[in-house]
Amino acid sequence: MAIPAGITGAAWLLRTVIDARDLTTEVAMVYLAGVLLVASRRSWGPAVAAVLASVATYNFFFVPPFYTFHVADPKFLITFGVMLAVGLTVSTLAVRLQRQADSARERERRTAALFAMTREFAVETSADEVARTLAAHARTLLDCEAQVLMQGPNGDLHPCPSGAPAVDDNELPAAQWAFHYHKPAGHGTPTLPGSSHLWLPLLGARGPLGVLGVQLSARGASLAPSQRELLETYVAQAGLALERVVLAEESARATVAAETERTRSALLSAISHDVRTPLASISGAAATLLEDRASVDESTRRELLQTIWDESESLARLVADLLDLTRLETGTLVARKEPCPMEEIIASAMERMERRLAGRQVRTDLPDEVVVAPVDPVLMEQVLGELLENAVRYSPDTSPIDVVLRREGDLVALQVEDRGPGIAPGEEEAIFDRFYRGAGSAGARGTGLGLTVCRAIVHAHAGRISASNRAAGGAVFRVEIPADAGPGTDRLSPAGAAL
């Protein structure tokens, strides 16, 4: 009653200061202002009490005879009636306006909370993340513990990591009922009301995905309708988010399965050709040597042995590519870098490729000063050997092959140039993909793995490899690696980046 007392004091002060006897109308307005103030700050009950108190104090203090509730002039009864009617009307309107404002603020708060949760759901990629977000928002909404149980591989329910205490075994029947029958169960429902939790099913388009449990028994009060409505909205949005996550995981698994099948088919296709052809050559040459030894002259015998040797090397390269692919897939291909003169790596690669390069003119363009770079010498020699093999395979037998080494600022650049048909437009990046065979590779052997392995090795050295065409015809493969990177160990990945 502090506000009515204050209003009465203000009205009495007004009367005293002005010292007038005919201020009853003005005083009544002061009382109505007080009623409006109470109605705008309190509920309808206090507002009505303020109206009645205003009429009573107005009669007691300001209507003659003063300080009694007796009314000498009947006209004041009309004043009392008008004050009461106006006060009740103003109170009703003010309280209604206040309730509308409170309702608008509550809707705004609920909308903001729902938007925040939905925004978090949109970027989450696992069921555990969705479960944690849902439990956190449910705890904030209801100020009680919340837990999410998800469907396991065997169809049973298991808790998701959400920071809440473990669910008591006595709660599982209500949770399982809500999950199987797609309806709320537990505290505050007709089904297993003795449970301390209210369990709500998380439903997707294809059925239930889990349940949300909120420990209402610890709150000491039931859910308000607005809280129940918002909680059910949370659950519905979480069900959609979980459905999206499940579909994304299924899509990812299907993509992996399709990629695996494509890789397997491409591998079998490449192997079937590149194994059958050398084996047929080896088998034919060996059969001739065994069955017609007497009729085979020395020149033919050496030619057949050379065929066996060449085809054996072809099979060895195929096996090496497959082993490198396996090591890439399992992450066991490791680059152990140390400072090495690049000229020695070039010489070693050309020596290893001597038989393959027989009859070919290989021209080296090296700088006057020794170029040292932190590389794995074995792997970098493998890269250069693969690029030389590529040049031999796709260029005429009589054409030269150029190997160029340069120190360009902070980079070491190594180029292999041939005089073949070059690279078809648009294939400059694709030729480094697994099993990719360029437009100009028809009739040439190869699995399409060599350049993939080269890219992985170069990337493990923090470098890059590129392919382009010579202005005068032919292909150019360029390797760039940092000249000043320190020694170390990098594990190679299938995509070609160091792990």
Quick recap of the structure?
With 499 residues, the protein is α+β, with helices and mostly antiparallel strands. Helix content is 54%, strand content 15%.
Shape annotation: elongated
- What fraction of the residues are assigned to beta strands by DSSP? 15-25%
CATH A-level architecture of the largest domain: 2-Layer Sandwich
**In which order are the strands of the major sheet placed?**
2-1-5-4-3
Please trace the helix and strand order, writing H or E for each element.
Answer: HHHHHEEHEEEHHEHEEHEEHEEE
How many strands? Answer: 13
Low-confidence stretches: none
Helices and strands: which structural class? alpha+beta
CATH fold-level topology of the largest domain: Heat Shock Protein 90
Please tell me the overall pLDDT.
80
Helicity range: 40-55%
Total number of helices:
11
What is the CATH C level class of the largest domain, in words? Alpha Beta
Largest sheet: 5 strands, antiparallel
Distance between the termini: 75 Å
The tally of domains stands at 4
